[in-house]
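Hello,

Our lab assistant flagged a job as stuck in the queue for most of the afternoon. It eventually completed. Since we weren't sure the result was trustworthy after the delay, we are filing this so someone can double-check. Below is the sequence as submitted and the structure that was eventually returned. Let us know if re-running is recommended.
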Amino acid sequence: MTNFAFLMDLLKISAKNFLSLGFDHTLVSRWRTGKRRIMPGRSQAAAIARIFRDADALREHPVIDRLLEIQYPTQPCAADDEKQALLERFLTEKGQTDADYQKKREVRLGCLQNHTGISAAAPRGIDAVRLGLLDFLDLIGELPQPQEFSFVFTEGLSIYLDDASFGNLFITKLMKLFEAGHRMCSIMRSDSTVSDSWYFHKIKLYAHLEGYIGTLYYNDFMQQGSEKILCVAGDKLALTVSREVLWDVNDTCISIYYDTKSAKEVSERIEEYRSRAHMLAHYEYFDRPNGWFAGIDILRDQPSYLFSRLPHFGISAPDDFAESFALSHDEMETIWREFYPLALDIRFFDEGTPIRHVFCESDIEDALMKQRHQSHELTAMLGRKAWMPTRSLVRQLTTIQALLKERKNYEVCFLSKERFDGLLVQIGVWGNEAAVSWIEKKQSVSCKNYMIVSGMQSLCVTAWNEIPAEMRTRSAATRKLNRWVRIYRI
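-- returned structure --
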């Protein structure tokens, strides 16, 4: 169905309305099916738009003005010439018969089909919600100025991200908004489960570290209300997703609002959630730890993951670690007090505890070519440049060799630069107690909330399993270690 056909059906007018201007039934039929496109800037398009507007003016409840406000919420639509121009644009848009275009039109304008002066039922079902969410992000992108838009999620996102194609599109559209200058505040329940999509979560984590997203959490574990998602952007654009039947996703419906009154109402609801929400993560962790992990107890029998470019942390015993970076007694005290999880070496954990490390082989080889290299993480932690001599790096690699022989539950993988860069972030997770993530020379964030850390633990499992099996075997790691140690042994 073309937009021409959509308007004919919406206004319930026949081909006879176009005969007076010399448009015969065959031509009208071709416009309906899309076999012939109404071309922009032509007198023909202006005449057709005028016919639709005249027919609409005779209705008890005109709908074209509302249609234009919904379809083009960021465009002027008050003066007669503005309405005429927008309607011509609607009639002449490209790709109207494409499936994606028609799905978007159904979500955005479907409520007008039975317009009687009162809003019709919102699109219902999980597929309609997904389409509406994607459409809403497109509408934010059409706003004349970058906005900070706020989302409230009262349940986990996994229900929507079960569809991988939707999840990929959603995060891709979000990133385009961020690149254009928009920013997002996310407000979630503190017991929300982390999505099991590593692809989605690593980009979301990257967006947090880049300052694109800020997340607040509120405690409301018993909430059983119908509100599932709220969002507002600017002073006219808002969205709600609701479900009356708790677990029936087909009962989920979405409404998108394009007016100041509705946007204000949704904004007020969002502010209620914001007023009782707080942060559960600590940003600028390396630069300002502020005793964040004071008193934390890392369990020796819980799995540990560390994905970092270079093997600085988690390998050497404390004395060797201090020697590798020429750390003073006071600096080691600071490391143990403020950065305790990162100071733990593999032998701290029980022999049967799974420990998995992922490093960047390209960065290791670059470092081995120099006399020394800088640890940007320790530099931020200590407030001075922290260097590791090449002989210390070789000693780290030798220790990894020995640990692979000693511990059957220790696994290590060396990725190429391209593959490691694809992780987007560096991350360490220790059981369900502590998680740290960072982007080199930029932001670092830490968390000790049980639900979030356990979710990140699961995501690290997923990320590890997504590495090709032949790349994470003990033999593959041993071959690389043997070569490096043989060539660079000092």
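-- support follow-up --
The delay was a queue issue, not a problem with the job. The result is valid. Confidence is low (pLDDT under 50) at residues 114-121. The CA atoms of residues 189 and 468 lie 35 Å apart.
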